[in-house]
Amino acid sequence: MSSARTALRRVGLGTALAASAVLTAAGVASAHVTVHPDTYAKGATDGALTFRVPDESDTASTTEVQLFLPTDHPLLGVLVSPHDGWTAKVTDTKLKTPVKTDDGTITDAVSEITWTGGKIAPGRYEDFDVAFGQLPDDTAQLAFKTLQTYSDGKVVRWIEEAAQGDEEPENPAPVLKLTAATATSASPSKISPDAGEAAKTSASDSTARGLGVSGLVVGVLGLAAGAFAVVRSRRAR
Question: What is the pTM of this model?
Fold first, then answer.
């Protein structure tokens, strides 16, 4: 019995360490600034994007977030959702190549949004919602370079873009992938005040499902290893 208990303790410790490694890896993977959802149909209209900004410092808070929107493939009709404690400054830029739409030719588009006045404490995150009237249909992805300023003066530049096939860079920019439009990928008929909340719920559900699957796998492996250890100890006796 003593040998069996020792074997089970070892299996339990190994299972716990494996589970911890899975959760740690999940936390590291989501530590940079991200956009949710991370996929939209090309040319989609009347939608919303949520930019999640985590605070990775042990001591300093995030006090400013600068989001740069691409102007070579601009988002049209950008609107910023109010965010408690934060003030958003929106900067427009004249486009080098005007965009023709059914409502006329667009010559200006939002190129930068800066949030100040609020605070993201260490170990916390904030979601910033941005609505759009139309996404471009002439590119496969959009990169949103972001600068994150901390209360101690440190600035983290989330601006790196990985070439196809390369590993993710150390400070990646949030990337929105654009796919071919299908009947099932049609956008809502109008922008809803709850569009940002829906995007956040979808992102949270995806994270929960991923962690749930990882935990299930770890649990199954732990049970299998425990059963094997018990059988082996009985045979030894």
Answer: 0.67
